[in-house]
Amino acid sequence: MIRKAIVKSFDAGTHKATVQIIGSLSVWLADIPTNRGIASGDMLADRYCAVLTPDPGQPGDSVVIAVWT
Amino acid sequence: MRTLTDTLTAAQKRPSTRPHPKVEVFDKVAGITRFHWERLYEGAEAEKFHAVTMPGDGSLIRLRTDASNNLYRQRVTGPDEESTYSSWTDWSVEAYAVSLCSYGANVVATRIGTDGHLYLSLSEDNGDTWSDWHDLETIAGTAADFRLASCFKDATNFLILYSDGTDLYRKRLTLSESWTTPTGHNDPDATWNSEANAYDDDTGSRADETSPGIGNWGKFIELTHAAIYCHSVRLWTGYTAYGEVDIDIYYGGAWHDLYEGDSAFITGEWTELTFTLQSITKVRAKFKYGQAHNIWLRELDFGELLTDEAGASWANSLNSITGVAVVYQGDYNIIVTGTDPNDDPGVWTCVLGDGYSAAVGNWSSLAEVMLAESASGVTYVHPTIALPDVYRAWFVEAYSGTESYSRPYWTHGIASADFISNLWREPVPFNLTSSYGLSLAWSGSYVWLTRPDGVWRASVAAGSVELTTSVLGIKASAREATGEISVILRNDDGRFNSIGEDDDTYEHLKLGSELRFSPGYYTTDAGSPEHSSGPAYWIQSFDYLSKGGRSTLTVNAVDGWGLLERWKARRQYSWASGDLNIYQLLSFIHSRAGLEFSALGGSSSVLTDLEPAFTINPGESGKTAALRLLAMIPDVLFFRGYFGYLKYIQSSDSEDYTYGTDHAILEAHYHTSHKAANRVQVNSATIFTESFDWEEIDLVFDILEQDYDLALTTTARTGARATAIERRQTVRSYNGYSVVPLNCGQEIYDVVKLTDQRAPLSAEKRRLLGIDHVLSCKSGISLTADIRGCVMNRLNEGLCTHPTAPDHPDPPTRRPALSIIGRPSTSPMTPATYRPTAPTALSEVEWVVFLDFVMMDGEHPRHMTVQGFGGHTPTPAPPRRPSPTYQRPSKYNNPSPLTGEAR
To answer: What is the chain A residue with the closest CA to B570?
Structure first.
């Protein structure tokens, strides 16, 4: 499953992001691993991103695979 | 299977029986009354802190503050739509947060003064008159941030919760009259002797004063105590007759007259003097002598009314508290808004124990109701809570972003759940803009919602109406993960033209209303007809049909699965591994849809052992989320009314009912296929488990199903998962259906034992994976049940005219003849007449097993297509005339006899 999200913050040290899945106004997903091919500088807050969740039940198994403005 | 009475069981087994399906509609959703708020007052008062309560006389007591922090009160006796809600009494004090609570005639008002003190005032006459304000506590901090809540436990005990903005404190108080002995004395003029005898609890001893002479006043004797809340004193005196008495009490830094006048005191008895509740520290008395004898004061007591404890902080931690509310039921049940230690805004519940869910005085930990990110712009404030029928809570959700809002939301608890379980339906927005929220109270048959400029009222009781006498037809279907019903009602006289309108007979027949269908029979019991209540549905659409001079209304409704489907996650829900087990996750999902949830009988070990990481994505339905969880366990879910039940199905389950012996099988189809998968591989992060059905692999080679779940961290869990998948495949590899006379208590996932000599089938256990009820008052009533695992049960209820059908005042006591037209694939078949009889006559009906068939009612043929196998849902098709070229479906051509393994 791939869902569209908004980057809320990014930790360049762990290369993990906090993202707001579209539709979830108040609660976000934290510590989502991010594609190492995405430069830290591209993970700016309020940019759109795509979150791939191989197992829809397990957010910890998700990864940010793309980011765009 | 639902339990049936002996008489109802006997009735459904008889070949000749009159069915009586009962259909009712309730103004409820998932068993909970649906409130219809009527606004009785819309004023111009500014929104600020406010509170409401309803004491024993049913009056509406309200408090409000204005922009200048002036406090006002209001008492409306016999509140209704004609009452005046705009008249307020200025209390001449200032306040920030306020609260009200009541029990019987006692009403307690508390306020946070602008000086940061906590004050209390008591009314003992339903809010008509009030005591002076009493300073209970001095609170450190910014008074405007303080919050208040209060509730009575019983007639004498109540609780005040107050917050200094970050911590929450409890103060338990008791309203109980007791006589308290003074602890000291003053004799300012040194005229009294043995003063301590006046408070030694011995009416035989005495303090006395030498007479200053007839007609002269003596001097005061003062009796003292640390400040206590009193509303009376009593004295036991001697030789006071014919004189005068002057008694004062000390509070507020000054003496106040309590009594002065002729002595009516009776020597040798207690004399009691009452006054409005005051926090007093001293009482003094002096006497004017009417005779030469010394005055004796044998005893004096304080009439203490209110005792309290020092405020004590709670055991939880929040960064800020923006609101608190409390209601008593076994414990003090609390809802609080604010921000957590991460500064994330939220709504939480907790319990201050009183011995029910928590030990007396103990705090439970905070449980989340709502949560938002600190930077999301969403905040929560000003909750309120009451218990008119179930826990009803309100709070304000505010959003500061684009298209900002500040809107009340309401929710309710699940009826059977304890408060500490923290199971709440998804909060629902209320059509109002509000910053300070709403206050909730109830009395008698109404629940009231208020704020300074508004008063709303709703009936607590849910209205209902029975539709049985209007029923022309019913189609009800229960399947795995779905259930629905359509009820066709006569409308030839326009009786349903105004449904849902106030004061209409059918005003409760509205979208969302609860529809209950109770199969039943006329029986030999005195209470006949008897029914098996259980199935419940919620109306999602109406269809009016005008055709051929006939007018009908069809009510379409869905069962608990439909309510699960209707609930969509408003936000991202995430639980880390170890947070909740699968049972708790399913409980949460059910509660958000307003549904009850429990396990019926035993449950699998993984149900509580497995605590997977889990998320529900925004927009995802509860049904989808529940099915994802159910895929992890061998247990299955079905609905009985508004209860979702988990059932641990096992091949060793004993049968719930038997067909083919004393309960006829009218028609059946038994189908066997290979499994959709006979080889299961389960993968987790580090473990790989595989299971095989070697017997079937030998026949059809391996058919693989794979599962991947990071939560499976042990071989036991991966093994259990493989077993669950294999079991599911096994159950679904045996398909078919049967048609039997209506069984009122049959439910999906029941195990039935089938005996059908022509199959051949002898006492074979099968599990029901679907049930259909079909009633037509023209052609009769039938109940169809889908069997999978080869079990099946398509119930055909006799084809007798519905006893309550219109135009049929004298329904038959035997099922009328059923005409069946069928056509095998190779040779035409002439119409046959079939009369359902005892099971021994099975040979008459078994030929219909492999046929779709058409029932003839002599006027309007009705066609039922049976597709109860191979994963299809048997659904009665729309009425049509039988096709002269009808061919038996090829899938029926080669039925295989079943082996006898229990499934």
So the answer is: A24
ipTM: 0.82
B574 shares contact with chain A (CB less than 8 Å): yes
- Closest-CA distance, B340 to chain A, in angstroms, reads 14
Token pair belonging to B625: 């989320």
Determine contact: B372 vs chain A, CB below 8 A.
yes
**Taking the CA atoms of chain B, what radius of gyration do you get in angstroms?**
37
**Are the Cβ atoms of B617 and A21 closer than 8 angstroms?**
yes
Residue B812's pLDDT is: 35
**Distance between CA atoms of residues B204 and B30, nearest Å:** 67
Chain A residue with minimal CA distance to B625? A57
Say yes or no for a CB contact (<8 Å) between A26 and B710: no
| Strand pairing report for B550-558 and B536-547 | antiparallel
Q: Which two three-digit tokens encode residue B705?
A: 């199903």
Pairwise CB contact (< 8 Å): A24 & B572: yes
DSSP B110-151: EEE-TTSEEEEEEESSTTSS-PPPEEEEE--S-GGG-EEEEE
Cβ burial B266-283 (10 Å sphere, 16+ → b, else e): eeeeebebebebbbbbbb
**Amino acid A58: pLDDT:** 73
Helix (H, G, I), strand (E, B) or coil at A8: strand
Q: Is the peptide bond before B529 cis (omega within 30 degrees of 0)?
A: yes
Residue B240's pLDDT is 64
Give tens-digit pLDDT for B815-847: 332 322 222 223 332 333 333 333 222 222 221
Q: Does B360 touch chain A (CB under 8 A)?
A: no
Instruction: Name all contacts of B885-888 with Cβ < 8 Å and 24+ positions apart.
Output: B886/B823, B886/B852, B887/B823, B887/B825, B888/B823, B888/B824, B888/B825, B888/B850, B888/B851, B888/B852
Given this model, what pLDDT does residue B584 score?
Answer: 96
pLDDT band, residue A26 (cuts 50/70/90): confident
Omega of the bond leading into B760 within 30 degrees of 0 (cis): yes
Tokens at B189, concatenated:
């003029």
pTM of the entire predicted model: 0.82
Residue whose tokens read 């007809």: B529
Is B234 in CB contact (< 8 Å) with chain A? Answer: no
CB of B704 within 8 Å of any CB in chain A?
no
Residues 23-52 of A with CB under 8 A from B: 23-29
HSE (CB half, 13 Å, CA atoms) of B524?
8
Bridge partners of B458, per DSSP, are B447
Per-residue model confidence (pLDDT) at position B542: 97
pLDDT at B791: 25
pLDDT in tens, B6-20: 999 999 888 777 778
At residue B564, what are phi and psi to the nearest 5 degrees? -65, -40
Residue B832 is predicted with a pLDDT of 31
Question: In chain B, which residues have pLDDT < 70?
Answer: 239-242, 263-267, 734, 776-903
So what's the pLDDT on residue B241? Answer: 61
Asked whether the beta carbons of B558 and B511 are under 8 A apart, the reply is no
Q: How far is A13 from chain B (nearest CA, A)?
A: 21
